[in-house]
Each structure stands twice: as structure tokens, then as C-alpha cells.
Specification:
Number of domains: 1
Distance between the termini: 62 Å
Strand order of the largest sheet: 2-1-10-9
Radius of gyration: 22 Å
Structural class: mainly beta
Order of helices and strands: HEEEEEEEEEE
Largest sheet: 4 strands, antiparallel
Helix content: 10-25%
Number of helices: 1
Number of strands: 10
């Protein structure tokens, strides 16, 4: 005959697991825009402007979305920090990231919200002429909360 303490513990464990809250699907909608002017290897003008939806944690399905890519670069938005409270997950911030395919490195910028403004991130990649401090080419990748 089984020990009553063991049966009681097993029953309590089953009840605790059944009643414990599960993480809900967190999501964050963003409007992302990429534009370029005379940047080597990138077409000039507005490259992409679209709404994207992050629906997962970083490293999981839905935790990163490619906004635009070409032979030289991949531009994506990635989930940053998340807050889990009362079984609910809230995506707190995100990154915009540009991956240089030729040199296999990435540059990223974290999002922020200042003075109650919209949550946003902006990454600028620039090239300079050898003899001046004026930039020669630029790519601007930005995402913001459209609400």
C-alpha cells in the first residue's frame, strides 16, 4: 500500500502544476523604415517601410523579424528585455540590427523612450570621405511603436 505522504505530495504537485500560470503570448507592433543615400552596396532611396510584429522572446520563434535584406546587408528587429509578472510576459524593449553579410558582423542599437514619447530605435551607418568630416553615404534604419 502506498505511503499517504507520498500520495499527498504527488497530488499537491499535480494541482500546483495544473493551477500555475503559463506565459501568455507577448507581442509588440512596430513600424520600421530603412532608407539610404549613396551608401556603398546599397540602393538609394526608401528601401522598406512596413509594420512588423514581434511575438516571442529573443532566440525563439517570433523573437526576431527580418525587415529588409539584399546581397550586402540584412536588417532585422529583435526582441530585447521582457518582464514576466503574474504569468504575463511584456516585451519591454527591442533592438534594430544591421548584419554586414560580406564581413559577417552586426551592428545594433537598443530602443528607448524619452519624455513619454513613442518607444523607438534608430541605427545610422555612415561612410566618410578621406579628407573631410562630412559623411559621403548613409543608411538609416529605424523602428517605432506606431501607437
Amino acid at each position: 500500500m502506498p505511503d499517504m505522504k507520498s500520495v499527498f505530495r504527488s497530488l499537491m504537485l499535480i494541482l500546483a502544476l495544473a493551477a500555475s500560470p503559463h506565459l501568455s503570448a507577448a507581442s509588440l507592433e512596430l513600424l520600421c523604415t530603412i532608407s539610404a543615400d549613396q551608401f556603398p552596396g546599397v540602393e538609394d532611396g526608401l528601401l522598406e517601410s512596413k509594420h512588423v510584429l514581434l511575438t516571442g522572446m529573443q532566440g525563439e520563434t517570433g523573437g526576431q523579424v527580418t525587415v529588409y535584406e539584399d546581397a550586402s546587408f540584412q536588417f532585422r528587429v529583435v526582441t530585447g528585455r521582457s518582464r514576466i509578472q503574474g504569468g504575463e510576459a511584456t516585451l519591454m524593449d527591442f533592438y534594430v540590427e544591421a548584419r554586414d553579410r560580406e564581413n559577417d558582423y552586426s551592428t545594433k542599437a537598443a530602443s528607448a523612450s524619452y519624455a513619454g514619447g513613442p518607444h523607438h530605435a534608430r541605427l545610422e551607418m555612415v561612410t566618410y570621405t578621406p579628407k573631410t568630416d562630412w559623411y559621403e553615404g548613409i543608411v538609416i534604419f529605424k523602428c517605432s511603436d506606431p501607437n
